[in-house]
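User: Reviewer 2 asked us to show a designed sequence for the structure in our supplementary figure. I'm pasting the structure tokens here. Could you produce the per-position amino acids so we can include them in the response letter?
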């Protein structure tokens, strides 16, 4: 079944053709993303770990290796993680950040929008984290999400229901999915079973946004 044809199993799509101007024309995809996708289209990345490593592609195996890597440190305060008041100015391992924050049950200091923002900040800070986090900006508005790796980061097992279903975290915080037909005009072999392209409908969660802004990406009441 096409994941995008069933309204009960996938999130609402954003039809860019209905906008006054195409998001592709106004804010084109970053060159690194276009080059990466074109290279991936000729790569069997599900089965070839060497090619996945070379292309910096997120995989569950790379995530699992990273969380036990005692030499992989980061300083959340210096990377500007939110809530800003929650983080101390010290280095901690990636594995500890995952267990103590990303996979912690949601609370006032650890909401989905905090986790999403911090995951993006981490890959903005250093692209080496992309294979472990599974998320990256591809232009000023659009996020590329690796379904399996991002779900692993958050400790989520029911990927579709928890993240992409109409009642899931992304739609409930105002995110919509780019229409697959429009994406395939540029990237015919883009694999939506592995990755999703999302943007915030109200343009609040965009590249360069801050803590004061993203708190308005609230759960729908």
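Assistant: Here is a per-position design you can include in the supplement:
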């Amino acid at each position: 079944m096409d994941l995008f044809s069933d309204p009960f199993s996938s999130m609402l799509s954003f039809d860019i053709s209905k906008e006054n101007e195409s998001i592709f024309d106004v804010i084109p995809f970053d060159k690194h993303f276009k080059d990466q996708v074109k290279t991936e289209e000729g790569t069997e990345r599900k089965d070839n770990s060497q090619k996945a490593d070379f292309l910096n592609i997120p995989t569950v195996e790379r995530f699992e290796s990273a969380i036990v890597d005692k030499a992989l440190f980061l300083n959340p305060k210096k990377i500007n993680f939110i809530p800003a008041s929650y983080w101390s100015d010290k280095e901690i391992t990636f594995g500890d950040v995952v267990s103590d924050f990303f996979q912690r049950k949601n609370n006032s200091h650890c909401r989905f929008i905090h986790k999403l923002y911090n995951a993006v900040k981490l890959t903005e800070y250093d692209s080496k984290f992309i294979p472990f986090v599974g998320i990256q900006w591809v232009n000023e508005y659009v996020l590329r999400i690796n379904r399996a790796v991002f779900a692993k980061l958050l400790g989520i097992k029911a990927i579709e229901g928890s993240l992409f279903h109409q009642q899931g975290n992304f739609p409930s915080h105002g995110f919509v999915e780019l229409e697959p037909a429009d994406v395939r005009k540029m990237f015919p072999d883009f694999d939506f079973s592995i990755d999703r392209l999302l943007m915030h409908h109200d343009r609040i969660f965009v590249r360069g946004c801050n803590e004061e802004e993203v708190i308005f990406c609230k759960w729908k009441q």
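For the response letter, you might also mention the following. DSSP finds 13 helices and seven strands in the chain. The two ends are 31 Å apart (CA to CA).
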